Amino acid sequence: MPADLLNAGTVRLTHGAASADILLFGATVLSAVVGADKRELLFLSRASALDGSAAVRGGIPVVFPLFGELADVPEGAVGRDDVKDAGRHGFARTQTWTLERSDDSDSSASVTLVLDTQKRDDVLKRYPFPCLLRYTVTLAADSLSCKLAVQNTGSKTMHFHALLHNYLNVPVAGAQISGLNSSFRDKVSGREEAAASGSAPLTMDGAETDRVYADRDTVEARSAAGRGVKLSRSADGFAQTVLWNPGEKGAGMKDMHKEGETEFVCVEPGYVAELKALAAGEEWVAEQTLSPL
């Protein structure tokens, strides 16, 4: 079987020697082990709750319909009122999704999870725009792909952010990030920064990092030892890339195990520079693929 329930809330997806665990709460991918050397692509804090009491610290949380805080959306921005009650990083990562189907082929195995907000009164109070989220996780021998589809099932245009918050299993000290060559918004300093000249990798030093890049191409994150994870994405959908690590602030996170903040780099494809407008009856789709380096 390509997909098995480990318990009431966790699905294990397998394909040959590769495996992935997906928590139905938040549709959060917790683990992805791929490649001939059975490489774990993702970081998961040992202090994170996995019982549905809080969003998961690690793996791949699904961020929707608001990235960050409402204060991060400029006053007067189109659609700002739509997400004013959505809460930090939205509700998708703290709702229990439904397993819709599983599929298996010679080249991969997949599961599809759905979240229908029309059936969630608590969600509609926070975000009064009925929509159907469909999330397909596909496991191959040497990669993990995640496709998010958002369908507007209501009668009005809706506005949203969407992002996959990848916690990559790449130690941050000395990590080399390639493919982020555009201008960016530095959320730590509050400044807009120009694109760097050339295409040399960015070296992480363990300090707090929170940047929103305009890049939508392939990004590679390598540890100082040279191993890492490659992020690629579909041509449409995710238009920006977020680079994040909490630095010393990680020590104050109750769901982060001791020095856990040193063990990962977050490279996150998203549509977050502005709120995406989606007309009634329309669908928006975005996809990413993670593979070992």
Task: Give an overview of the whole structure.
- The chain is built from 1 helix and 22 strands.
- With 293 residues, the protein is mostly beta strands.
- It has a single domain (3-292), classed as Distorted Sandwich (Beta-galactosidase, Chain A, domain 5), CATH 2.70.98.10.
- A hairpin with a 4-residue loop joins strand 7 (98-104) and strand 8.
- The model has no long low-confidence stretch (mean pLDDT 96).
- GO terms for molecular function: carbohydrate binding; glucose-6-phosphate 1-epimerase activity.
- One of its GO terms (biological process) is carbohydrate metabolic process.
- InterPro entries: Aldose_1/G6P_1-epimerase, G6P_1-epimerase, Gal_mutarotase_sf_dom, GH-type_carb-bd.
Describe the structure in brief.
The protein is mostly beta strands and 293 residues long.
Order of helices and strands: EEEEEEEEHEEEEEEEEEEEEEE
Percentage of residues in helical conformation = under 10%
At CATH level 2, the architecture is: Distorted Sandwich
Strand content: 35-45%
Separation of the first and last Cα atoms:
28 Å
- Report Rg: 18 Å
Strand order of the largest sheet: 7-8-9-10-22-19-18-13-16
The CATH class is identified as Mainly Beta
Oligomer: single chain
Structural class: mainly beta
Number of helices: 1
Instruction: Give me the count of strands.
Output: 22
Keywords: Isomerase
GO biological process, one term: carbohydrate metabolic process
GO molecular function: carbohydrate binding; glucose-6-phosphate 1-epimerase activity
Protein name: Glucose-6-phosphate 1-epimerase
